[in-house]
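Tutorial, part two.
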Amino acid sequence: MALTAAMVKEAAFAAGAGDVGIANIERFANAPRMMHPLNIAPDCRSVITIVQPIPRGTYRGITEGTHWTNYTIYSYNRLNTLYRPLVTYETACFIEDHGHEAVPLYPGVPERPGTRPPVAEGRPAPDINIQVRIAAVACGVGEIGWSKVLLTRKFGPRVRLGTILTDAELEPDPLPEPSLCNRCMRCAHQCPGGAIPLPGERPTVRIQIEDRTYEWADVHMGRCTLTHHGMNWEASPFLKRDFPGFALDVRNSTLSEEAAYKLTYPLAQARWLPSPEFPNVAVLPFYHQAMAHTGYFAVCGAKGCIRACMDSLEKRACIEQHGFATPVWPRPDWVLSPPETDETGGIAEGKFADFRDPDPNPGGWK
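Running the prediction step on this input gives:
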């Protein structure tokens, strides 16, 4: 029996996918050479996107300021590296059971092409990867919102993505017509790192797929990385507790994404900070514990790019999963006060407080 798009989708749903979309290879005609699927699978005829939903409740602990681990495990790292690949793997095996090659790709969201030298003359860099969000748009499963997060009709921004390249010629899904992101800017206003620019602050990113143009903000990935990995006092109570007085101005930082990773990961992986002042004191113990158990640590809980966005989409009732009994912010959000300065203008040691913002939706953003 010839393999069809309907058969592939049925297999993916049976394996646990939340949604599935398919694109023909021609939709990647404008992709940069270093991000083109044909560099990985030269015989690729179809690209398949597997959507795995993020359970809405995995954000609850961070929203309440009480439990951070669920976000790292079920919303981010383990969902990307363990639960989601199982669905992609089973779907790829199903395709190969029907005589077609399938290339399941590890999730990647590269912002630049490969950087390592090619293994042979005329070949691309060996560390290339396709942009999974753009591939998802080409596969028809959603649009990219202003914050660069993929928005789907069923789950909104609560998704992780898998990708399969195959030499099977499958019927493509229609390209999405942008309709979910209404440029409310809640993502920009509520990002604790100021990583998402408002319109006009930075040039936008534009791509064209067939006759459609898609556009979103040029997110500052250095600020995003610092905040996501806990170097932003506005998002991480652990940083302020373990290093009183540390007050990196993330909102105005010009660190690159690479530099931000170099700053955050050594602190999380280090076990002890040997010094006369802090003998045998663990460095950022929460981060180290998260790294030890999950190989990853995430702190901000995607407050702007996902939580604020899903709150807006649910209130507008423009996604299928919107009728939840508990709001995204059922109570006023917790925030940390700015570090106090001493008489010299420096940051005063140990001066911070935990209080509740009286309005989690200031300005009445919709």
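Residues 162 and 203 are 29 Å apart (CA to CA). In part three we will examine how such features are distributed along the chain.
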